[in-house]
Amino acid sequence: MNTLSLPLNIRRGGSDTNLNFDVPDGILDFHKVKLTADSLKQKILKVTEQIKIEQTSRDGNVAEYLKLVNNADKQQAGRIKQVFEKKNQKSAHSIAQLQKKLEQYHRKLREIEQNGASRSSKDISKDHLKDI
Asked: What is the DSSP letter of 18?
């Protein structure tokens, strides 16, 4: 009868926790940092694009307002101005929130690039959970 011999570091059970990986912690930390940095860079691009879209929309609202006010009487101009100001405030608020988010992403990216793996994996996991 032939028997297969298994290395001693493979245990019975089927659980992933029983596997013995000979991978240094530094490599795993590097990959976590790289993945986190890449994720932040994607978020920065997305938020930057959202800001551009919101600014374009705001510019369109301004152009529309100017066109409408030019052709309106005094009473209509007052109503048009109220509607425009409301839209403009919403737009300004959205842009401010997006810029704040962008600054936070840039700050996190700088921290990760400067500190690298010194940041605990618990903190990185918290960030990923927040994003989800």
From this structure: G
